[in-house]
Amino acid sequence: MSDILDIIFTDEIGHVKIGNIWFHYLCQQRKLDSLITFDDLVKKHIGSELRGPFNIEARKLADFSKIELDYLQNSAKSYQAKNQSG
């Protein structure tokens, strides 16, 4: 079973990488800042910060930039701070 999950995991990294390439390409073609655009889309479709946790190593393999990784981690920290019980 773990062999199957490893195959799926590797396959998903490839899909995310391709999606990231296309997202950046389209932002560049439309002269949009990709990080601002991503943040706008998150707010529009999710309505709050992304909660995480995120597999940072997998996202590095999918060629996420340090700025993108920082955005994800900061979003998760902000979400957790706002939603702590007690």
Question: Your description of this structure?
Answer:
The chain has 86 residues and is mainly alpha-helical. It has one domain (2-82). It is 73% helix and 0% strand. It has helices at 2-29, 34-45, 56-61, 66-82. The longest helix is centred in the first third of the chain and has 28 residues, at 2-29.
Which key features would you list for this structure?
single chain; 86 residues; mainly alpha; 4 helices; 73% helix; 0% strand
Task: Give the SSE map.
Layout: H1 2-29, H2 34-45, H3 56-61, H4 66-82
Nutshell version of this structure?
This protein is an all-alpha fold and 86 residues long. It is 73% helix and 0% strand. The longest helix has 28 residues, at 2-29.
Count of helical regions:
4
Mean pLDDT: 92
Percentage of helical residues?
over 70%
Biggest pleated-sheet summary: none
Q: Write down the overall geometry.
A: flat
Number of strands: 0
* Coarse structural class: mainly alpha
**Which range does the strand content fall in?**
under 5%
- String of helices and strands: HHHH
First-to-last CA distance:
40 Å
Low-confidence stretches: none
Radius of gyration: 15 Å
When the domains are counted, the total is 1
